[in-house]
Protein 1
Amino acid sequence: MAERLQKIIAQAGIASRRAAEGLILAGRVTVDGKVIMELGGKYESSQRICVDGKPLTLAEEKVYFLLNKPKGYLSTAKDERGRRTVLDLLPEVKQRVYPLGRLDNNTEGLLLISNDGQLMNGLLHPRYKVNKTYVARVAPVPAENALDKLRQGIRLEDGLTAPAVVRLLDTVEDEAKVEITIHEGRNRQVRRMFAAIGCDVRALKRIRFAKLNLAGVKRGHYRPLTDAEVAELYHIAGIEQA
Ligand code: URA
């Protein structure tokens, strides 16, 4: 069945449909050797479709990894300026994987990496409210009534945040360690939430994503998800596993 090119690329697990549109508009996609830069055309997946010259392999095995991202790695698949990306930490993985969402360059912690575009897009959808827990080292020490503002929802330039679950873990001199759980995924959200109560985030680590945590995975290392963990993610994303 003929389908839009962006859909075929997304189904191959290379990028979300939106990102696939970007690849097409950037002239990085060819069909039977011809660069296609329009989004409207329909093609058969049996045609020779290439991204950056590499043919799509539609039946690529789906793989899922949990990475403990260190600081100093970009959460992208590729960087035009040649900076280190999280994929540099998985050199043995041959599939065309990419990270699920983003952690800032200077944020560390749990990042899922996969080539399952359908699952990744499902999990990123705001409808599913996937909890993400972070530990932030902030300064100065926030007062409880400031933390209450985060618990209630705080106004940022892109609108009110959903209520967060916030726990003061520890204080040392002028710094506090705060655990914060949010389910939205706005850009630099945790840093901006603390900035809105007058705190600077000195270090940020994601320690949980849904029920997954970093147990047994050292910084810079990764492990495959178990079948049960993948099934649970499918359940959360409300998608039937193929
Ligand atoms: N919130 C942030 O501010 N940064 C991240 O990397 C993740 C969440």
Note: The pocket of uracil is lined by residues 103-104, 107, 188-191, 204 (CB under 6 Å).
Protein 2
Amino acid sequence: MPSTLALSLPAKGAPFTPTTIQRRPLRENDVRIDIRFCGVCHTDLHFGHDDWGGTLFPLVPGHEITGVVSEVGEAVTEFEVGDRVGVGCMVNSCGECAPCASGEEQYCTEGFVKTYSAVDHDGTVTAGGYSQSIVVVDRFVLRIPDELELAGAAPLLCAGVTVYSPLRHWHAGPGMKVGVLGMGGLGHLGVKIAAAMGAEVTLLGRSAEKKNDALSFGAARFVNTRESAELAAFAGHFDLIVNTVPARLDQDAYLGLLGLGGTLVNVGAPGDPVASYNVFSLLGARRSIAGSSIGGIGETQDMLDFCAKHQITSEIEVISADRVPEAWENLSGARYRYVIDIATLGTP
Ligand code: NAP
Ligand code: ZN
């Protein structure tokens, strides 16, 4: 079986170890990809720390993958060697349930197969993009538009689509007031994408030093969530708030910022339950509290094409593979996404 170099966590709490892993021989619908860049998503840390339980070790994280096709199976018609492609959080799904049939594979009733730490339909355990190559069935491979460079496009594959999907679902656009809560990898793309959709965007964040960046990404304003008086001034203001924070939050405080019929959609996914809410925070203005998971494959391609049209890529700091442990220690220091240059992994 073809082998490839990877960065692996042998067990919870163990340090990253360069290792060799096997990728399957190509099946007729498979695409082999030489990985060039992989984003470091906060979800990688949740898995590495086993925050959600059930992580399969050894773990090769990484689901913000861009690269170049190096080989295709004989039945592949959509991709050829040399194509610039990406892979996000999913590498398989049942393909038959109602969500799969409607292009929402992320809500597959059998559970989609995650790019890492999952058992694929053939019984093998998936391994992600902190590695030099990956083999993925063609219907889970995305095309990277020519306008987007591969490093800055990598975080779009998870962070980008995770904010794009709820913004589309709740119809972000002109006349709509959107709050983005937390400005890390997801949040900064949320600001850029919601602004490009034409919404009035407010960054709700605890880090005042990010204010000018938020404005440059298209936010109309920055509101400091540590300042209760600043928050209070926006009571009832928003139609939609996208919460990207990976920690427990006072949901009532943010529900109170929504106007009539507004929605607080949680995409941040802390391990412990998000704080409970008071039902009166909802019924006084017919508000909703919701969640959203990444996006479907078709929607991910739409998002990439949208980003190409609006010249949106992630703000990135490219790091070498040996700096991954340091990046994990200091993820909130990223402006705004660490992206691993996979060429620095070495030679097999
Ligand atoms: P990130 O880059 O670490 O950014 C998170 C941001 O949230 C920080 O930059 C900070 O922004 C704010 N924040 C962090 N800790 C906080 C705290 N204790 N209290 C208040 N604010 C805090 O993380 P990310 O990669 O964007 O991921 C964010 C979350 O989304 C993670 O839980 C991840 O697992 C989840 N996620 C979910 C999906 C999905 O499908 N739903 C997909 C991908 C990721 P400020 O400094 O601006 O406050
Ligand atoms: Zn992710």
Note: The longest strand covers residues 30-39.
Protein 3
Amino acid sequence: MPVHNADIGSIFEEIADLLEIQGGNPFRIRAYRNAARTVGEYRRDLKTLIDQGGSLPKLPGVGADLGGKIREICANGTCELLERLHREMPAAITELLRIPGLGPKRVRLLHDALEVDTIEQLRRAVRSGAIRDVPGFGEKTESQITQALESRGSAERRMKLATAAQYAEALATYLGSVPGVAEVTVAGSFRRRRETVGDLDILVAAGVAGPVMERLRAYDEVKTVLASGETRASVVLRSGLQVDVRVVPQVSFGAALHYFTGSKSHNIAIRRLGQARGLKINEYGVFRRTVRVAGETEESVYAAVDLPWIPPELREDRGEIEAARRGELPELVTLADLKGDLHLHTRATDGHNTVREMALAAKAAGLAYVAVTDHSRRLRVAHGLDPRGVSKQIDEIDRVNSALSGITILKGIEVDILEDGSLDLPDSVLKRLDIVVGAVHSAFNLPRRRQTERILRAMDNPYFSLLAHPSGRLLGEREACDVDMLKIVRKARRNGCSLELNAQPDRLDLDDVHCRMARDEGVLVAVNSDAHGVDDFAHLQYGIGQARRGWLTGAEVLNTRNLPELRSLLAHPAKR
Ligand code: DGT
Ligand code: CA
Ligand code: CA
């Protein structure tokens, strides 16, 4: 039975939820949540590693107990603890936690007082007014829940890109091994590198479709077959992810790839251009009357309407067709363009590795420099550094720098931006550093004007270099802070600072629209991993995907610069 890391992650997440509803030990709950993230995003497939050799790699925060659970899940697809919790609490109850205003305590109250265990039962309890009588549920909570239930109807369930990648790559490899298959590509929003995907659209080039369809239906992870025809099928995987598969002959592959990559509005615009030239463009090819004139490659489809090939990340009908026509498509940044990473953590705070280990991993990832930016003292959960801690780390970096070659470590800090916009460490400390990364980690709900002022004020500190994860959003978990991003971007421009595109799969913050705003305003964006361990440099690929969606070229990304150029950009002549 295939078990992907993301499956193990979601089991740990569910265990944490259920333990929390039961009022379990907070440290234990935290341990499961941390492990869920670490394991869920680990880049090597743990089941394969176990099947091959038996020994689990050392994962941060995963001790003997959790390691045993991982083995159990890899062997059985589930674990005894989760089964036990399900016997004690209905599984659907964890869904209730996703409703804003409902924490574990309240979910438990609802369960005890009204036997509400599902969203549907919650809906009924709200409608009947019964919810008002539960102790601890005021009018405010009631209206908050009503609102959440209303907006929920329209909100679709989407999966983070990095998580979907685990399922996509495994299935694409599986289908690629079917005899007669020439090519497999995951199209749709996945290929456009959207931060989340609604479903996967997989395109297979093969002379005959039958064997592909058969093998798809036999895939271990298929839970439900929604539809299955001669050349197309839709299935739902055990993870809940829907997959649409299409088999096409090689002569149509480019046209089909274009069609199923989307976006829909990009396709419509291209089809119109075809119509104006007397061409019919569909997923089978480009036709003049009944004669096929193009379609084997995507290039040929674009060439038929006199356009150069347009990178998938740009295909959102946001001006890419006009830019292509004028010959002004941006030369998008690539992963290979990155020369350094300006945001990472070590064991000194909440990272899992030493300065030396992180530097060596960055070097192995092809980078020439990294900035160590541990947290500042205000962030107690992460054991943030005080001025003495910073001094100690500066000495350590000097030692490691003189011992290593081929990688340079810059001295930095991820300093908390306090509620009044001041920074969490004195200037006398900040001025000793090469880079000061400012970040909001508290009071996310300030009203727009105050939140914006807070950040603008922080950027006025003469040592401020880079604004980390500017919106503060966590995909599927926390909305972006309410800020006037244009004001922030313009302040960055005036003060000579940069904005970060944090590449963690659940952040991807700046988003694509704000990357483009930064580009339009002439502000450099730094694509950073925010690595907490040696494997996390793998996040950078997702950051690059988002940067490309934001039309960024190599020249518009700060950390494509070589070290001397970077140093001069960080010197901020504008402010001193
Ligand atoms: P998603 O799955 O919500 O993350 O987004 P997409 O873009 O993958 O959308 P999906 O899966 O519904 O469809 C995949 C592609 O197929 C879409 O990007 C464009 C193409 N497509 C789907 N429906 C239509 C349609 O009605 N007209 C046109 N022109 N293209 C369509
Ligand atoms: Ca899709
Ligand atoms: Ca689809």
Note: The first strand starts at residue 159 and ends at 160.
